[in-house]
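Q: Structure tokens for this one, please.
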Amino acid sequence: MDRNTEKIDLIKKVYSKTEYPKIIDTQFQQLGNLSVNQEIEETVTVNEFFELYNELFYDIQAYGGSNSHEYLVKTSGEYINFDQDNEIIVALRAEITQLRRDLLQAQISTAEALTGEKINLDVDNIEDADLSGTKEYNEILSTIPSTPTEDNTTNTTTF
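A: Here is the predicted structure, written as tokens:
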């Protein structure tokens, strides 16, 4: 036979209105319409979320848009009003710094009384950061003599 003269038979099957829904699935499941039970099964629980979070912890970028630890901290912080807690922490740190400044001044006064020497250290000019870090604070304290020195102690008693 010649290609142009080849004959193809088309078969068309027609269904009645009552047969059609029985044979053809008319639900649009591929478009995301889920039953209530399916939605419940596919919903991530809080425990499942944290299990996934722990598994993905190091895969999450530190800083960035909505897929970062920074985003989680900011949104969670806003949710629990973390700034209010942060303000309390800042106030407490300022109070601790002032108490350390007062303690340092008292120790200087004690050292001056014991040694009879004037210690030229202005507590008010020390940076707050130096008073809040234990290493720097301890270095400042170690410069203050705690006992009298040879130069200002004399024995005037004669035998």
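A few notes: Helices lie at 20-23, 36-42, 46-56, 69-79, 82-115, 128-132, 134-142. Residues 82-149 form one domain.
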